[in-house]
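Shift notes (night). Ran Glutathione S-transferase domain-containing protein while the centrifuge was going.
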Amino acid sequence: MMKLHWSPRSPFVRKVMIVLHETGQAEAVELVRTPVAMAEPNLSLIPDNPLIKLPTLVLDDGYSLFDSRVICEYLATRAAERGLALFPADPQQRLRVLRQQALGDGFMDALLLYRQERNKTEERQTPAWLSAFALKTEATLNFLQANVSALDQGGFDMGAITIGCALSYLDYRFADLDWRQRAPDLARWHADVFVCRPSVVCTEPDETP
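Came back to this:
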């Protein structure tokens, strides 16, 4: 059985979990709770991932895969026909999906750093960093709002999954930003296409210690 180093609150782990459910492979993976923190590296993860990051997927033969992009493509390929919808074969459509996935991944990376900076005591915060993360968040939301038609046309593919996870992470960790007010069409897509999906519902983050 494959082993997934996992946390219930990581948006990158959630992305992988959604793919597992979408491709019918959730039962083929053992979830191993592996806490990681920037200031407290989890040394037990080094044999499987020298970067000490989640998610990390360990295959049956002990070969490990990281990061979420590699893991998701492997799972989609492994699922054959069920994974085809996630990464379209058509070159133009595949490029669209990969671009959306890159945007969603970059957005989640920025949000994780943004949250870390916001969680510092005021005297330890760097105002320029907070301003930069706020600018990136606003610019990404504006871009997605202006290009929501690409999400509408694509279906529930890897691009949609990644962007949906990023928006849901905004809800989970940045409720005060009220992103829906500035991106109403994007909010409609998130509600109508993403959050109602069974694979999304069953991977909601929780506060398990």
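Residues 18 and 202 are 8 Å apart (CA to CA). The chain has a mean pLDDT of 94.
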